Amino acid sequence: MSTTTPRSVGLVRAQTAVFESPLALECGTALPAYQLQFETYGTLNAAKSNAVLICHALSGHHHVAGRYSDADKYPGWWDNMVGPGKPIDTERFFVIGVNNLGGCHGSTGPSSINPDTGKPWGSAFPVVTVNDWVKAQARLADRLGIDTFAAVIGGSLGGMQALQWSIDYPERVKNALVIASAPKLSAQNIAFNDVARQAILTDPDFFGGDFYEHGAIPRRGLRLARMLGHITYLSDDGMGAKFGRMLKSGEYQYGFDVEFEIESYLRYQGDKFSDSFDANTYLLMTKALDYFDPAKPFGGDLVKAVSGTSANFLVVSFDSDWRFSPGRSREIVDALVAAGKRVQYAQIASGHGHDAFLMMDHPYHELMHAFLNRVHEEVNR
Amino acid sequence: MSTTTPRSVGLVRAQTAVFESPLALECGTALPAYQLQFETYGTLNAAKSNAVLICHALSGHHHVAGRYSDADKYPGWWDNMVGPGKPIDTERFFVIGVNNLGGCHGSTGPSSINPDTGKPWGSAFPVVTVNDWVKAQARLADRLGIDTFAAVIGGSLGGMQALQWSIDYPERVKNALVIASAPKLSAQNIAFNDVARQAILTDPDFFGGDFYEHGAIPRRGLRLARMLGHITYLSDDGMGAKFGRMLKSGEYQYGFDVEFEIESYLRYQGDKFSDSFDANTYLLMTKALDYFDPAKPFGGDLVKAVSGTSANFLVVSFDSDWRFSPGRSREIVDALVAAGKRVQYAQIASGHGHDAFLMMDHPYHELMHAFLNRVHEEVNR
């Protein structure tokens, strides 16, 4: 364990990397030029061997840790995991957070200006996939002079990127941490995504994706998508323990305003999200989830897909996660074992459901700490 | 077992019972007058002791079995369960199906004309609950001269009505069959309902519930509600076995049209439903689910709630049902056992999820048949 008392990385700032050469995408088109928004914490060592890439999930971004100003109400989304003395220790590692292509937090995405038209990309923005993101992240690594990552780490959709990294660039990934993830979506996973997408696509304020030019925002659809998504992030039991059947006003109102606390909570989450997130980005992120299937180019054989990897793997699942249940993580583990790879697997007891990968559950953080201690030793060997 | 080869009840017709005296509702208002649409199959015996009431679930109605004409494409919703030689044997029982108040299949509901205004009730239709439905069904029983039901039977929301019947009219229910149900909704159950409701309530074509006068139908909202509901009716494994990741056109299209078969199926279900169901009825049915909590008047004590019942109970759950999991049925069973009541419980192995209660799974139908054989013997004793 680290000897440092865990603390925040403090004040941080975002950086922008501009890429002028086209990026060929899986969908068949190319992005002529693009930029990636990213942040770094800690210091790259002289051997450039201590870099750690953190890949974000559906609604995440590059702002992983720290605050932009002392007035900031909230730190980055994984501040409990990343910082001096924390499992991803910024006194040991040079940590990179990056907003993915198609995002809405500074990297080129549907709300960015399309240089060809001078207007937001909107519906003209191409569909991007996990493969595309990994390729774009590799270019960013090149730009930063990082040949090999000590670790690529992600939860959920982020875990899919870590797995894809280990497959696409085996020589560039020493360790891959795949948390609360799955080797591909199930029919039920896709079904939930499709309801969320249909909510956005059928919102009259969506205007086929070109709502920017109409001064509109498809808030209703985005709000529904987030409410629905949120249900799948929490466990049934966790939701029961936190909200149960608690009534907003103590008694049944027999109407359609908020009746139960859980309704109030969900609507609040939906409202907040619909004010800050881009609807087209939401669509793209859910499609990237649907398309993810690293075994597909290998005839559906995940063992073959991971047979060329050379990373050490840590695969983590949470017992109350029903979005990507432990069984889904075990599919990854089984394939790695069958391919003769080094893999550690842990199923963590947590009431937090899928959201557990973002939470400060001690056994989970201790596990991450222990694994990354070994990574640190490896770096210094 | 019955000696009759199972067959259809054949051609049936719906009947209407008009009630001119007001019905006081749980919400505090009263329906001044109302009608109930119902169907009956089989013959009421001289002792009037062989009547069976079937209570419908969220999107159900009175048309339980048979066809209205030979040209009818589909029979009633529980035709596999109700008919000569079937578990609910119409050669033995006088079977009643009734559309609940607030419905959209002939009983007074939001799309009915409000006699005070000459316009559809719309937003003025009061919120109705399981208690109200049971009271209205009891009046229908009075009208038909039925003092005591040999059995009250229902699945899901229908099972809640069967349970409420046994509590509210203990002397009128000899047997209560509570299938794939729960003693109250969980926070997660309510959350799914609320997303469905918000989809309808925020549809610009909803017009606060008075869309009828605007010549509009909130199709988008109703479609989303149904798509979401449908996911919760199927099991993850069942959906995986039926659809998996099958693609509509064999290859990734990298766009927002239908990509996976599961999307095609869900959108079709949503479209079909939004063309035929009333949005206000959908809202009311989900609220009735949310409010159902027979233990509430007993300080939350379900044992006390069922302590006055005198029915024999059959409680049935399905192992792949995650909407109302077997654990929820066991809550009912545990309370009945603790109250010293006669109860049989079965957890049926089925891949059909919550929908299993409507399906022709043999162990389930054999169980129903066996239980209802005993009810039949009881009637003839």
Automatic annotation (TrEMBL), chains A, B:
Q: Name one GO biological process term.
A: homoserine metabolic process
Keyword set, alphabetical order: Acyltransferase, Amino-acid biosynthesis, Cytoplasm, Methionine biosynthesis, Transferase
Q: Which NCBIfam families match?
A: homoserO_Ac_trn, PRK00175.1
Residue span(s) of domain AB hydrolase-1: 50-339
* Listed GO MF terms: homoserine O-acetyltransferase activity; homoserine O-succinyltransferase activity
Q: Which InterPro entries does the entry link to? A: AB_hydrolase_1 (IPR000073), AB_hydrolase_fold (IPR029058), HAT_MetX-like (IPR008220)
Glycosyltransferase is among the record's keywords: no
Write out the function statement from the record. Answer: Transfers a succinyl group from succinyl-CoA to L-homoserine, forming succinyl-L-homoserine.
Give the residues annotated as active site: S156 (nucleophile), D321, H354
Site entry: Important for acyl-CoA specificity:
R323
Report the sequence similarity comment from the record: Belongs to the AB hydrolase superfamily. MetX family.
Residues that hold substrate according to the record = R226, D355
Chief subcellular site?
Answer: cytoplasm
List the top taxonomic levels of the source: Bacteria, Pseudomonadati, Pseudomonadota, Betaproteobacteria, Neisseriales
Entry's Gene Ontology cellular component terms = cytoplasm
Q: Which EC number(s) does UniProt give?
A: 2.3.1.46
Please report the name of this protein according to its UniProt entry.
Homoserine O-succinyltransferase
Assembly and partners are described as: Homodimer.
- State the reactions this protein catalyses: L-homoserine + succinyl-CoA = O-succinyl-L-homoserine + CoA
Query: What subcellular compartments does it reside in?
Result: Cytoplasm
- Cite the annotated pathway: Amino-acid biosynthesis; L-methionine biosynthesis via de novo pathway; O-succinyl-L-homoserine from L-homoserine: step 1/1
